[in-house]
Amino acid sequence: MKLKEILAVQKNEGEMSEQDKKFFKSLNKKVVAAMVIAAILLTTIIGATVIKNVKAGNTELPEILTVQAAKQDIQKTISATGTIISSEESSENASITGSYPVAEVYVKVGDVVKKGDPLYKLDMKSMREQLSYQQQALSIQNQLNDIAKQNADRGMQNTKDSGAIAVIDADRDIVKKQQAVVEAERNVRKAKEAIDRAYDSIRHAEGGSEEEKRSAHAERIEAENSLQPAKEALEEAKKELEIETIKSEKAKKDANDAIVDKYMASKVDELNAKQSSLSAKQEMSKAREELSKEIVYASQDGTVTNVNIKADQPFSGGDAVVIDNVTNLKATADIDEAQIPNVKEGQKVQIKTDATGDEILNGTVVFVSPTATKNSNKNTDNQSSTASVSKTRATYRVDVDIEGSNEALRLGMTAKMTFIIADKQNALAVPSADIQTDADGSKYVVVQQADGTTTNVKVETGISDEFYTEITGGQLKEGQEIVEASMDGGADAVLDAMGADGGIYDE
């Protein structure tokens, strides 16, 4: 029986053991090629024996080996080795701005915690002292601000009073000058009246003595002489009144300007005081916020898996306490660059671990990294007589949610993962090794007729697993007998079905 028939029969009957599967998967092309050569030699020997028997008169020919086209379930898969990880992990670090020693650590590795449980405490004595100093400084600053405001208010009142006094003095001077103008106007009026009286006296003295006439004219001359000084005194009084009026307006303006300047200065001082108080309050707020981080609490339910701090040692700030959800687990693997295009979110995955034995854990792909996570040194050797070229291949992280829970699973365990890329139920299938390719590129299988003759039947293929290929079109019917391909063609078909690296992508 040929190698491909052994594989086909064992898969059909479900009798292949895990050890057999591991054996066949571990075969690379060189080993398979060696087995193929051995099979060809064996076939040649058998053929020679048959010819010898025929020549000897024994006409019995060897039986043609066939396999039926049958319906079965086919899964196209990718295998990878990964690791069990937590579905939810948090690193509980204090988001502080200063540097403080650790005062107390409340948890240890293995402790189960709830969200909000205290994990560790920092020694913030220095920050408490700083806050106390800031509070005292703010209190003193507020007192100084009150005193400054009182002084400013007092200064403002003094400025108003001084301005009012200056205005009053100016107004008093105006009144005096106004009185002087009134007096000067009265003197001018009196001088004019004296002149009028002098002319009246002259008219009355026309019929009188010469003495009366001389007296009347002397009175006129005296009256006229007093008018001009009175007018000049009036003009001078008016000028002085105008000057005092200007001085009064200036005094009022100066008083108002002084009040405004004093007000603006007091406002600037008030704003500066408020700014100082605000800055002090902000610093106090920062100090209180820093003190609020004195105790670090768990941000999730889970189990403490790492503690990287100790009491009385400086807080480093990196992964102080790590909490993992060990109930809901995931498996993660790095998939080879050749296979990552086939892996999609939502695909089903079968997972096995040494701890869970033969039990298959079901999972679903929940994350496929868009960028390479690391380079794995999978070597593609092109050997010649002079050199061997090694190519580095990229890998991409894939995370898988594991359905349900299993007490045997632990973080960090090795997971053997089978990604179901495609799945066809009850599909018509034939051994991959028995599908041959015509010169025009079309595919066919050799079918044995009821009368023992054979014919080529065109087929269209779908997905393939390690041994069988789905038939999606053509004239092949279920139950037809397919002649096993010759070993020279069948070996390449088996190897092609297994993939360029033998079908296995180990991490």
TrEMBL record:
Q: Where does the YknX-like beta-barrel domain lie?
A: 329-417
UniProt organism field: Pseudobutyrivibrio xylanivorans DSM 14809
Classification via Pfam families: Beta-barrel_YknX
Q: Give the residue spans that cross the bilayer.
A: 31-51
Basic and acidic residues: bias regions? 201-223
Its main localization is other
One CC-aspect GO term: cell envelope
Keyword Transmembrane helix listed? The answer is yes
The protein here is known as Multidrug resistance efflux pump
* Intracellular or extracellular location(s): Cell envelope
Q: Which domain of life is it from?
A: Bacteria
Which stretches does the entry tag as region Disordered? Answer: 201-227, 371-390
Task: Enumerate the UniProt keywords alphabetically.
Answer: Coiled coil, Membrane, Transmembrane, Transmembrane helix
